């Protein structure tokens, strides 16, 4: 199994370019099932989850042609459409559930695996199923699979999500595009990746518009037309590199990302002492000599502080002067990195969904185990500022969502290598 060896402490200095967003590309790829004609998707990140989604699309009958560097894909339909999304694919990548709305909407049937549990929380799909049911989908659950069908086309209706969910909002938007009539969706997630999905669908002719901050109106159309679309850049990769620069007292120019999308994160980094200059598609960040603490940082839906940056900010606050605290309000078990950070010397106490961080930690290198994607990158960040040589095991978690991370880090001064 591959691992990273990181020799710290290192200072980050230089320039990097942000890759395409994994969490925007996944629903966009799933939604290509709605199209009859050719679709071209550009700026795909080269990460494992994208390969899994592509394999899922292939298994459903899409024809896939990549360009040389696998960042542009042309998707066309073969004659035979399949409807079976297997457990082996959906289990490893929960976004596989996003093909459900597309299959039922376009082809009136699907057998999609339930994703099952996940390290960071139970992550049920009840909001997805409830919303699709309101659009007319019938379903039974047999042997771990959702057997879904509808006799006629889905029918537009009014739906209010009882809780904000990124995936449920995406699945329902995708399904409603080709439904008969008008769908009103209230209490939607408004993450930038959802806006990107909407922009993609609109580029194919879908009629979707916001009529309130979290309310969408979708006018069903008969079919979507051929389109070509470039996926947005990854805001979590950007946030991770901003934290890395700040943590090491470094100096980093981050290219190919619109800073307006991560205003909340940038203002938090300013609070801890970073100096930040922004241009149209660039962030220039320099870390402070002394990192200031933050009290009661809470993860919440966009435009608030994202759960996907919680672990990275925790590492930063371990190095801050004084005590900090973070509340995780999205997932019930997203503190997997804490036990590993303690092995590097961090003093963190967990009480329910709140982490109390002592600060002023002198990280000392250790052998570490990755758990989920963001916990793993947090370990890499901590290893960068730890004294000595750390080994990070099970880095396949990182390969699911960070493109070329060791090369990008090496280029800006981190002593990191991948070994078998
Ligand atoms: C998306 O997951 C992201 N994944 C996650 O990114 C991200 O952490 C999360 O949104 C929150 O921002 C992708 O975009 C592929 P949710 P999703 O539905 O859609 C509960 C990463 O590291 N819930 O907004 O699964 C759920 O358990 C990942 O890149 C239900 O109870 O998140 C959670 O507590 C991990 N029933 C909360 O809602 C449902 O039917 C929010 O989940 C759906 C969700």
Looking at how many chains there are and whether they match, the oligomeric state comes to: single chain
Structural class: alpha/beta
In DSSP terms (H or I, runs of 4 or more residues), the helix count works out at 14
What's the Cα radius of gyration? 22 Å
- Nearest-integer average pLDDT: 97
Q: How is the CATH topology of the largest domain named?
A: UDP-n-acetylglucosamine1-carboxyvinyl-transferase, Chain
| Dominant shape | globular
Give the CATH superfamily of the largest domain: Enolpyruvate transferase domain
Characterization of this structure:
The mean pLDDT is 97. It contains 14 helices and 24 strands. The protein is an alpha/beta fold and 420 residues long. The longest helix is centred in the middle third of the chain and has 13 residues, at 235-247. The strands form six sheets. The chain has a four-stranded mixed β-sheet with strand order 22-23-1-24. Strands 2-15-17-16 form a four-stranded mixed β-sheet, covered by helices on one side. A four-stranded mixed β-sheet has the order 4-5-3-14. It folds into two domains: 3-19 and 233-419, UDP-n-acetylglucosamine1-carboxyvinyl-transferase, Chain (Alpha-beta prism), CATH 3.65.10.10; 22-230, Enolpyruvate transferase domain (UDP-n-acetylglucosamine1-carboxyvinyl-transferase, Chain). Helix 4 packs parallel to helix 6 (166-177) and helix 8 (235-247) packs parallel to helix 12. The structure holds ligand EPZ. Residues 23, 26, 94-95, 121-128, 163, 165-168, 189, 306-308, 330-331, 373-374, 401 line the site of ligand EPZ.
């Amino acid at each position: 199994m591959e691992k990273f060896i990181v020799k710290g402490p290192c200072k980050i200095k230089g320039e990097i370019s942000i890759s395409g967003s994994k969490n925007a590309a996944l629903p966009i790829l799933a939604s290509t099932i709605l199209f009859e004609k050719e679709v071209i998707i550009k700026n795909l990140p080269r990460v494992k989850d994208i390969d899994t989604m592509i394999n899922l699309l292939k298994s459903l009958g899409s024809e896939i042609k990549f360009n040389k560097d696998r960042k542009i894909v042309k998707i066309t339909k073969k004659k035979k459409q399949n409807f079976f999304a297997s457990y082996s694919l959906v289990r490893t990548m929960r976004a596989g559930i996003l093909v459900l709305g597309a299959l039922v909407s376009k082809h009136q049937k699907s057998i999609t695996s339930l994703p099952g549990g996940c390290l960071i929380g139970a992550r049920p799909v009840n909001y997805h199923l409830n919303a699709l049911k309101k659009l007319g989908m019938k379903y039974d659950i047999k042997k771990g699979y959702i057997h879904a069908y509808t006799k006629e086309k889905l029918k537009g209706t009014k739906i209010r999500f009882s809780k904000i969910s990124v995936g449920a909002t995406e699945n329902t938007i995708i399904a409603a595009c080709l439904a008969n009539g008008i769908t009103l969706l209230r209490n939607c997630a408004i993450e930038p990746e959802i806006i990107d999905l909407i922009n993609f669908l609109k580029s194919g002719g879908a009629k979707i518009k916001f009529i309130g901050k979290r309310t969408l109106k979708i006018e069903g159309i008969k079919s979507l037309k051929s389109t070509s679309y470039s996926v947005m850049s990854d805001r979590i990769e950007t946030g991770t590199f901003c934290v890395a620069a700040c943590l090491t007292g470094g100096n980093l120019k981050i290219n190919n990302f619109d800073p307006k999308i991560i205003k909340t994160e940038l203002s938090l980094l300013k609070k801890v002492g970073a100096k930040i200059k922004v241009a149209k598609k660039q962030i220039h960040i320099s870390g402070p000599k002394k990192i200031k603490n933050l009290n009661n940082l809470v993860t919440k839906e966009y435009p608030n502080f994202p759960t996907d940056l919680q672990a990275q900010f925790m590492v930063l606050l371990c190095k801050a002067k004084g005590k900090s605290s973070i509340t995780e309000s999205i997932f019930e078990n997203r503190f997997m990195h804490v036990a590993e950070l303690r092995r590097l010397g961090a003093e963190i106490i967990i009480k329910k969904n709140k982490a109390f961080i002592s600060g002023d930690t002198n990280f000392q290198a250790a052998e570490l185990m990755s758990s989920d994607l963001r916990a793993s990158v947090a370990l890499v960040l901590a290893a960068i500022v730890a004294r000595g040589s750390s080994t990070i095991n099970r880095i396949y978690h990182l390969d699911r969502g960070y493109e070329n991370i060791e090369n990008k880090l090496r280029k800006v001064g981190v002593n990191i290598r991948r070994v078998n």
